[in-house]
Amino acid sequence: MRMIRGYWQTMRAYLATPKGAFDARDYGRALLYMAVSSMGAVFFLKLTLGE
Q: Which DSSP state fits 16?
């Protein structure tokens, strides 16, 4: 449990830096783009295959 707390504290300290905040926004945006693209692909396949 102590190791998980250490990882959590390290992540919070990293996200408090300008680079960490930028990286978090960048990764969040990339995750959003991947989710939207995946949903679009599923919608397109359902539309074209009719299943």
A: T
Q: Which residue has the tokens 């190791």?
A: 3
Going from the C-alpha of 13 to that of each of 1, 18, 25, 35, the distances in angstroms are: 19, 11, 16, 28
The distance of Cα 6 from the centroid of its chain, to the nearest Å, equals 22
Q: What does the pLDDT profile of the chain (51 residues) look like in tens digits?
A: 889 999 999 999 999 999 999 999 999 999 999 999 999 999 999 999 986
Total count of residues recorded for the chain: 51
Q: Contact, 21 vs 15, CB < 8 A?
A: yes
